[in-house]
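Appendix B. One record, verbatim.
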Amino acid sequence: MNEIKIVIISKSENLPSMQCKKLFHSDEMFKIIEKTPGQKPYMVIAYDKENIVAHMLVMLRRRGSLFPPYLFTQGRAYGEGEYSPDCNNKEEIFGEMLKSITRELRKALCLYIEFSDLSTKMFGYSKFRNNGFFPVHWMEIHNSLHSMKPEKRLTYKMRKLLINANRAGLKTNISTTDKELNDFFKILKNYISIKIRRYIPDIKLFREMLNNGCCNLFTTTHKGTMVGGCICVYSESNCYMWYLAAKKNFFTKRTNAITAWTAIRHAYAEGYNHIYFMDVGLPFKRNNFREFILSFGGKPVGTYRWFRCSIKWINKLLSWSYRE
């Protein structure tokens, strides 16, 4: 391997021409994040001489909390980036990119950094460790759509739930208007308001993604009133369910069931290979949401999420708490 040069870009006008297949690491997503209030994109680019061999998009998010510190920033990356087809030293290059972005975010007074959705559980293990990150066991669920019809994977309990949803008059469709997005956003904010860890980006992010054709908004109505919905993002041959929400105390489980099921059937009809549920949480023995998602016939996979806090003593304490 020749000497790898790392460049970090934070303004779209400075982006070079890149081959982007993964939405979460694309120049298109960079520009969307750049337009979103409360977020700043960083594109980490690895050069081998004059050739781009890898790039990775990391987002800096401004967040609020009920507890000190009340305002802070978080670095967030979905996956390890995108690499040229002939790259045979991915982990080494990733290590260089990780070291550079960790240093850059520390300068930006970022409180903590989080990496998720890595291609394999052990990818970059030593590189993360060398840069002060610690792993947290996580659970991911995805449904295969290419080997069997989705209907054949449903559990008896989910079939019954969907029948009851139809009997209750719940209907799900793809929505395209700004009013429908605004209505769903209100439901989403109320639905996860008590879930401290969850982050909801500014509505402008979803608006830009819908306008660019990067995602679909599925909304569920009852007698003409919106009661739930979900946002699905599409990248390569896969669908990713990013947010799922329903009005509280209104057949919440039925609403989420018919919403998610419509999104699954749509992904199957469009020829996507898998649908991934992006956040089913920590792998506790009892997790009602995880059990709900599994009833669609998906496959649970144990993986890691990697975290690094910029406050050294807190990072050491958390690393000790989550030690393996």
